[in-house]
Write a structure and sequence with these properties.
Structural class: mainly beta
Strand order of the largest sheet: 33-34-37-35-39-40-41-42
CATH superfamily of the domain at 449-712: Alpha/Beta hydrolase fold, catalytic domain
Helix content: 10-25%
Number of helices: 7
Distance between the termini: 52 Å
Shape: globular
Low-confidence stretches: none
Length: about 725
């Protein structure tokens, strides 16, 4: 049953919810004394409100609509709630007995537009009716003390409903039909408005047209990401493109930040011009003054620049920048804290900001907690995880010397602890400068103790051109050292522009082993060794990386197999390869272009890139600019070379635009038609990942049976 656990002492309070009720979301008041729970019931999502003492009551006659945004949030007075309620709507629209007519799409020929991100699109008039039926909500103010509800405005499809910090206004984005069949819902036409507390329109900030001609990898024109300034009563900020939203257009500046003061009817004021695309700023407000932390992204170099602005003084300066692929140098993410009105600001200590991150190193991840000074750039490391465990910062508890930490190891089930920072200590560079003590909060038990017999090791090696690589070696229970085993290699190729970051170690061998879904780690229980997180870097100029995709893929695989054989854990004649999505493409290419593996399992992959004519992954060129590259990376064109058995699995309702189910069907037919050994498994109703218990269990059966027959027991 859901329960509250007191950080100090670990005392537990059961929440009086009905049997079988499932808590979906918790919204706390800024002082941490009250909470609102969104709870799944048999026929609706209900709202329950209570306190940390354990009292809890349901708000009657209210069904929360969680589609398209936050369904429940505390208003700035921290006493009332703004809720998206399902209005009276009757039964869902029935599908027509016959189609109303043909489905028609067209292009005006005006300019190229992005197609890659389109998924789960509306396709028919019935889809339109269903979207409007389920996405429509009405905005309601709920007073938990009295149970009274106050309706604001009319029922509509709301993408945003955000109260100003002083509670005087509401920023509302209202989607406007007709609904497009060419773009996802977040690019539908909309009205961006400011309302008063009675739900009456005060001003229209912007009328945003249907964004159906956005350049490839670009952004729509007009205001985007509009939000209130957290440290002002009611000032709006937003970003607009200066390059037509086109990332390849020549432009001295790509974006600008603007603001608009009440009464929201005048001209907006430009605050800052950015050389690159602005990717984050809304939660970057400092607690005092006009400080704003803003991040830009340079598309070509995959570089991020974090700036500090003073929007009151009109000053700006670069704080730090980094290669977004360089995990070893990552500063982590800034921490935030709520103001008394519930607005979130940077969590600071004086003129320094708290950061936490995964702390990647060549020995594995070592999460940290830092203080980064805004003026000097000096970093004080308060906490760093030791190598023999895995623990990370969760949230401060009471003050900045106490925080909740999650602890685990390869044999210890994850639990929460109360960490206390102590005196300053001498420390080597990069290590913690404060002593740390811990007290347990939770006492969860290991649900699968038999998995603790699995051994994990980090194995590092090099590709033939000197690029450092690694994999996490998992050995089955009862493994006898020096015994070559049938082996499963699992990987996902990633692109890099810098060889120094390509081979960086990911993850930690100290993570507690849990098997989720149709995990490849289940092979461990069948006596296989598993090479997990096998690095498969594709290195090169971001504009042309895929020119050498196949040769680099082969070199990566050859190096990993050679290392596994060299250390004595792998039988070179009994290796299988498995991958999902882009990893499925990897599997098919390795079977077509190498003889390293006895068999493969390709899941939810894309095997013919010519069906994605305007780019895939980080390939930015169109099919018409790089026709040969599109063909060379597409194993369907080389299916006659797949001379090892391949199991092809795909969800029958895959909404990922690059991996529609048709991809697997055609690849399977190409292999089978060329005389190859192949099996196609299509999972009913499944999307890009597999969720139904029946699907997961069937995939596990298929995978184990396939590799048992063609890898473990291969002659």
């Amino acid at each position: 049953s859901p329960r509250l656990v007191k950080v100090e002492g670990g005392a537990e309070t059961l929440l009086p919810l009905p049997k079988g009720a499932e808590v979906h979301r918790v919204s706390w008041t800024a002082d941490g004394q009250r909470l609102a729970l969104t709870v799944r019931h048999a026929d609706h999502m209900g709202l329950w409100v209570g306190s940390i003492e354990g009292d809890l009551s349901k708000i009657e006659n209210l069904a929360v609509n969680q589609l398209l945004g936050t369904g429940v949030r505390w208003l700035p007075d921290q006493k009332r709630l703004l809720v998206r309620r399902i209005p009276e709507r009757g039964s869902p629209p029935e599908p027509p007995a016959i189609p109303a007519g043909p489905e028609i799409l067209e292009g005006t020929g005006a300019k190229a537009r992005s197609t890659y991100e389109a998924r789960n699109l509306l396709e028919t008039a019935h889809d339109d009716a269903l979207f409007e039926y389920y996405a429509t909500s009405e905005l309601v103010v709920v007073d938990p003390e009295t149970g009274k509800l106050k309706t604001l405005g009319e029922p509509a499809v709301y993408a945003t409903a955000d109260p100003s910090p002083d509670g005087s206004f509401l920023l509302v984005e209202r989607m406007v039909g007709p609904w497009s069949h060419a773009v996802p819902w977040w690019r539908f036409a909309s009205e961006l408005e400011v309302w008063d507390t009675d739900g009456q329109p005060v001003a229209t900030v912007a009328t945003l047209p249907l964004a159906d001609e956005v350049p490839i990898h670009g952004v729509p024109l007009g205001p985007r990401d509009a939000a209130w300034r957290a440290t002002a009563p009611h000032t709006l900020y937003w970003v607009e493109a200066l390059d037509g939203g086109n990332p390849v257009a020549e432009a001295a500046h790509r974006d600008r930040l603007l603001r608009l003061e009440a009464p929201f009817t005048g001209e907006s004021e430009e605050v800052f011009r950015a050389e690159h695309r602005i990717v984050s700023w809304q939660r970057g407000w400092g607690a005092e003054g006009g400080t704003l932390m803003l991040t830009q992204r340079e598309r070509i170099r995959r570089w991020r620049y974090t700036w500090l602005l003073d929007v009151d003084k009109g000053t700006s300066r670069l704080w730090f920048d980094l290669n977004e692929s360089d995990r070893y140098a990552s500063p982590g993410s800034a921490l935030h804290r709520p103001l008394p009105n519930g607005s979130w600001v940077l969590h600071q200590k004086g003129n320094a900001v708290y950061f936490s991150g995964s702390g990647a190193t060549d020995e594995g991840d070592r999460p940290f907690l830092d203080l980064r000074h805004m003026e000097t750039g000096e970093v004080q490391r308060l906490f760093r995880c030791e190598l023999e465990r895995y623990e990370y910062f969760v949230a401060f508890a009471g003050d900045e010397n106490h925080f909740v930490m999650r602890y685990e190891s390869s044999v210890d089930v994850p639990n929460y602890q109360l960490a206390t920072l102590g005196k300053v200590i001498d420390a080597a560079e990069g290590e913690a400068t404060r002593a740390l003590t811990r007290k347990p909060i939770t006492h969860f038990e290991d649900p699968t103790p038999q998995l603790r017999q699995i051994e994990k090791r980090l194995v590092r090696y090099e590709r033939e051109d000197g690029v450092p690589l690694s994999f996490q070696l998992h050995l089955p229970p009862g493994y006898q050292e020096g015994t070559p085993l049938p082996t499963v290699l699992y990987a996902y190729p990633l692109e890099y522009s810098d060889p120094s970051t390509a081979g960086q170690v990911r993850g930690s061998t100290q993570r507690f082993s849990r098997f989720y879904g149709a995990s490849h780690l289940f092979f461990l229980l069948q006596g296989y060794a598993v090479l997990d997180r096998t690095t498969m870097p594709m290195i090169g100029d971001p504009e042309t990386t895929y020119d050498t995709f196949v040769p680099q893929l082969v070199a990566d695989a050859e190096a990993s197999v050679a290392k596994a054989v060299e250390i004595g854990v792998t039988d070179p004649k009994r290796i299988g390869v498995i991958g999902h999505s882009h990893g499925g493409l990897m599997v098919a290419n390795l079977l077509a272009h190498t003889d390293l593996f006895r068999a493969g399992i390709a899941r939810s992959g894309s095997y013919n890139k010519t069906t994605q004519p305007f780019g895939f992954q980080y390939e930015r060129r169109s099919l018409f600019e790089a026709r040969d590259v599109y063909i060379q990376v597409s194993p369907t064109f080389f299916a006659d070379r797949v001379n090892e058995p391949v199991l092809v699995i795909h969800g029958n309702a895959d909404s990922n635009p690059g991996t529609v189910t048709f991809q697997s069907e055609v690849f399977f037919e190409a292999v089978r038609g060329s005389g190859g050994t192949a099996r196609l498994v299509l999972l009913p109703f499944e999307d890009h990942g597999y969720r139904a218990q029946e699907s997961v269990e069937h995939v596990l059966w298929e995978q184990i049976r396939w590799f048992d027959e063609y890898v473990k027991n291969a002659e």
